[in-house]
From TrEMBL:
The protein, known as: HI0933-like protein
Positions of the RsdA/BaiN/AoA(So)-like insert domain: 190-337
Keyword terms: FAD, Flavoprotein
Ranges for domain RsdA/BaiN/AoA(So)-like Rossmann fold-like: 7-390
Gene3D superfamilies: FAD/NAD(P)-binding domain, HI0933 insert domain-like, Translation factors
Superkingdom of this protein's organism: Bacteria
């Protein structure tokens, strides 16, 4: 029996793969979209708490991590948040801006998946869902894959199986393994946008599980002002997830618990409310339990009026750069994305095609481009998928 032939085979029916497939299909290419999961877009369905934070209006290349920070520029400039929003509006999907430029569906992430599936159907994309790919070969200018016992061939193959985060949901290193097989370098991968774990010496903070506060979290030269959340294992919340992408093992992170306070705030409080304790003073700006834990750690029990100025100044400096030494992160099981991946050195920034393997493309999270929290990763998936889809 002869193999079914296509112009392109896209491996992975997630955000990037569906965008690549629908773009190529609507350009008249015969496309086969393959996924081992029985239905497409599983990560889209759980994203943004089920409402999919599908883009961010502040998308810019400096909000992405990559060995080559300029790589994403071209694709992001050619397919923008406004372009994706136009598609969302065309499908009459209600949306809202939540905070910091993050756009969410009003109702359900399912609408985004349905929209992408409908667009794929518009492009007559063929689907193969729910069966594993058991072989991938390449020769005579054709890629051959075996799925469900049948061989399918195409002159182009798109690696779009995403990253390693949430293996429970079927995430695999398939694209990374295939890339290596085709001689493409892979940048060391690591969990990103992931909660930190704290050790025994910081157990006091773990007892604050569930408490959150707006802070500025810093690692190295980057800082993020967002909410931090204490968990029974360590630190989470947007501020912590953001810095985790930049964090190097065994380095401390610094947290400013008083981002809006003047540098002499405690001295001023001493003047105005000398009978107040540090704990009650901190509780004016922070959740009660956190104020208590911080005051305990600072060992200032007497009333502010009885404290020396130097002691209060030192306490405030500590509160503005509170050091935490994470023991690690919660790993891929809890990471929103994978950092690292197929090296951008091996790919054309215009088309996402491998420079040394004609017809081989890589898109989305499998590539070494990782966005900030807040819709940036989907925007990269749409933009890189679009770039490949236009070149297939
Ligand atoms: P994606 O993971 O979407 O798709 C890969 C596809 O390949 C999957 O359908 C998978 O089944 C398939 N596949 C894997 N291995 C295969 C194999 N061996 N054979 C065949 N198929 C295979 N981002 C954002 O911008 N806004 C948000 O709100 C969120 N929220 C969010 C919540 C949670 C809990 C997570 C885990 C992640 C997010 N993200 C996010 C990140 C976002 O989901 C992610 O960056 C994109 O889905 C990446 O798109 P891709 O298409 O590259 O991979």
């Amino acid at each position: 029996m002869s193999a079914a032939t296509f112009d392109a085979i896209v491996l992975g029916a997630g955000a990037a793969g569906m965008m690549a497939a629908l773009t190529a299909g609507q350009r008249g290419r015969r496309v086969l979209l393959v996924d081992h999961a029985p239905e497409p877009g599983k990560k889209i369905l759980i994203s943004g708490g089920g409402r999919c934070n599908f883009t961010n209006i502040h998308t810019a290349p400096d909000r992405y991590l990559s060995e080559n920070p300029h790589f994403a520029r071209s694709a992001l400039a050619r397919y923008t948040p406004a372009d994706f929003l136009a598609l969302v509006n065309r499908h009459a999907i209600a949306w809202h801006e939540k905070t910091l430029g993050q756009l969410f569906c009003d109702h359900s992430a399912r609408q985004i998946v349905d929209m992408l599936v409908a667009e794929c159907r518009d492009g007559s994309v063929a689907f193969s869902f729910g069966a594993p790919v058991t072989a991938v070969d390449h020769g005579d200018g054709l890629f051959r894959i075996t799925v469900d016992g049948r061989e399918r061939t195409a002159p182009s193959l798109v690696l779009a199986t995403g990253g390693l985060s949430i293996p429970k949901m079927g995430a695999t290193g398939f694209s990374l393994d295939l890339a290596r097989r085709f001689g493409l370098p892979v940048v060391q991968t690591r969990p990103a946008l992931v909660p930190f774990t704290l050790g025994e010496d910081e157990a006091l903070f773990r007892s604050l599980s569930g408490v959150s506060a707006e802070v500025v979290a810093r690692t190295g030269k980057v800082s993020f002002r967002e909410a931090a959340l204490f968990t029974h294992r360590g630190l989470s919340g947007p501020a912590m997830l953001q810095v985790s992408s930049y964090w190097q093992h065994r380095t401390p992170i610094a947290v400013d618990f008083l981002p809006d306070a003047q540098s002499d705030w405690l001295l001023e409080e001493k003047r105005v409310r000398p009978r107040a304790t540090l704990r009650s003073t901190l509780a004016r700006r922070l959740p009660e339990r956190l104020a208590e834990a911080l005051a305990d750690r600072l060992s200032i029990e007497s009333e502010l009026g009885n404290c020396r100025d130097a002691g209060l100044r030192a306490a405030q400096e500590r509160l503005a750069r509170w050091p935490f030494q994470p023991t690690g992160t919660e790993g891929y099981a809890k990471a929103e994305v994978m950092a690292g991946g197929i090296s951008t050195r091996a790919l054309s920034q215009k088309t996402m095609e491998a420079t040394k393997v004609s017809g081989l493309f890589a898109v989305g999270e499998a590539v070494d481009v990782t966005g900030w929290l807040g819709g940036y990763n989907f925007q990269w998936a749409w933009a890189s998928g679009r770039a490949a889809g236009e070149a297939l």
